[in-house]
From TrEMBL:
InterPro entries, alphabetized: P-loop_NTPase, PhoH, PhoH2-like, PIN-like_dom_sf, PIN_dom
Protein name: Predicted ribonuclease YlaK, contains NYN-type RNase and PhoH-family ATPase domains
SMART domains with a match to the protein in the record: PINc
Entry keywords, A to Z: ATP-binding, Nucleotide-binding
SUPFAM superfamilies for the chain: P-loop containing nucleoside triphosphate hydrolases (SSF52540), PIN domain-like (SSF88723)
Keyword ATP-binding belongs to the record: yes
Domain (PIN): residue spans on this chain: 11-146
GO MF terms, alphabetically ordered: ATP binding
Family of the protein in this entry: In the N-terminal section; belongs to the PINc/VapC protein family. Belongs to the PhoH family.
GO cellular component, one term: cytosol
Record-linked Pfam families: PhoH, PIN_4
Top-level taxonomic group: Bacteria
Amino acid sequence: MAGRKKSKTTKLFVLDTNVLLHDPTCLFRFQEHDLFIPIVTLEELDMHKKGMSEVARNARQASRFLDEIISGAEQAIENGIDLSGPSREAATGRLVLQTQAIHGELPASLPVGKADNQILGIVMALKGRDAHRPVILVSKDINMRIKARALGLEAEDYFNDKVLEDTDLLYTGMREIDSSFWERNGGDLKSWQENGRSYYRLRGPDVPGLFLNQMLWQEGEQPFQARVLSVEGKEATLQTLKDYSHGKNNVWGITARNREQNFALNLLMDPEIDFVSLLGQAGTGKTLLTLAAGLTMTLEQKLYSEIIMTRVTVPVGEDIGFLPGTEEEKMTPWMGALEDNLDVLNKSDDDGGDWGRAATRDLIRSRIKVKSLNFMRGRTFLNKYLIIDEAQNLTPKQMKTLITRAGPGTKVVCLGNIAQIDTPYLTEGSSGLTYVVDRFKGWGHSGHITLQRGERSRLADHAAEVL
């Protein structure tokens, strides 16, 4: 009876190649359901295995996983190999490989020679053969899913790697509070002054929902901005922020133009915070604030020895081919954003005239190194200020590789806009940037801010709104 019940509830998922290329561990992520891998999928996997790209690496890893699963279980291939052993009980279904020709009746308009159509034919045949349970195609290819549904077949995207189903739920790093917050949580409020900052200790029902280094703010006659310094059970300590919108607290000549920029500068300028992530649309000031804080802490406060800037080299349009020169020179076309921001930061010092500005610019450039992502493995950065720009184009695995480069005394800042992903196979939900924001929230040495307001110009703001 249990066996019959299981066969009713379990589904048979047919995997398209792009799912394995996107996430090789997908073989172990379908829980109690069974997987079917067509021969065409294996052929396409073989075609993608050469090279050093992320896709090629994933193809090789998927092949290794398949080899491990099949080794020693050759007799069970046709009926399905139990996945509970290879997946360490993460998946309890079976893996079925196609061992013979399966013919599904496809409309004459679909050419049989195309791999996608062969997979659709197999799904159709399996649906006819396994009428007692759902047969579902899993593919990252939207057109493939449309074709499947047009033929009356079930098709789904692969969601398992998504950190969040809806990016609107992504942690913003801040929270607006109102007077009722103080009524609920300020029963036995304690406050004191220390080193020019005010501290508040409060208890109440809202406290367990707060995260370390989350920014709390309140509008009104007396605007309130504070950072959550500690959370222990139902007791939390808040610390008021430094006001970087005031000229006397400027950072390399830059002042915060809005509330979120002030939050960001408080995180960037705090040496106790080792990891900062800034999300925001184009023109919200992510790079400018990060560089201004980096220059202040490197050249003035001498907390870091140099600034290292890296970014994913994914072109928006067609690629322009090979570039001559050293690693630094090859990265120059990708670093227009760095040059533009240095122009702004260098303008603030008018005392020295043109010569003084040129000298300052040379000094600044000597302390900023531009590095390519491709050569990051095996490196360790000591006392560096590491900026990862365009981080939305990184996979979670690449993000882990980069952040684990940090040695003692290094601060890592991730910048990006998840609405501008240029890498195929990555979506807002599965981007490495979404991944780190979600995983780092609540750690005492990290902070995150989602910048909302563009500060470029009225033209840029209007364009962002209407175009």
